[in-house]
Give the backbone structure.
Amino acid sequence: MQNNWRLKREDLLKEDEWAKLKNYLDQKASTGFKTFVQDAAICRVLVWTGLRRSELADLKISDLHLDESNPYLIVRNGKGGKYREVLITPECCSFLANWIKERSGYLFVPQRNDKYTGDGIYRVWKTALKDALLPPRSVHKARHYYATKLHDATKDLKFLQEQLGHSSLNVTQVYTHITESQANKYLSDFDKKLQG
């Protein structure tokens, strides 16, 4: 399978945008209004886990394994019907452990239905970006942000492939692009070498 698409810098969720969105989400959640608290949680978990919107909508509390030495969550029906286990960070684990207290069933439940749809997750994300005065970005950009940060931290393409549930390393390689900060560092180092 040939991968003919590329991630463009301007399409990626940027570090300052994520910081601004987190700040906005914290402010909204601090009101204690149940919908704002859940919307903030949805956006955070999207970025912290790299799940697709339908995977997050289908996630049940019973799919969380937070008491393990390496906490993880289970995606039971990923793209192509694939099962996978996604390791999660201590911050995400702590957040989810607090979130699931006094809850059962699906991890996130909208006001009027038993469970979210992928489109419902998209609407939460889209509204949060708009209300935070950020440019529109698809939910998949949260996945891209997660993947780029994970690759930057680990440099392990196979681990990234497993976390994202890709069947091919060719698809995963799209996240190996050079970030702006890396490019600036490389050019600065190169400039120093040129100066002698």
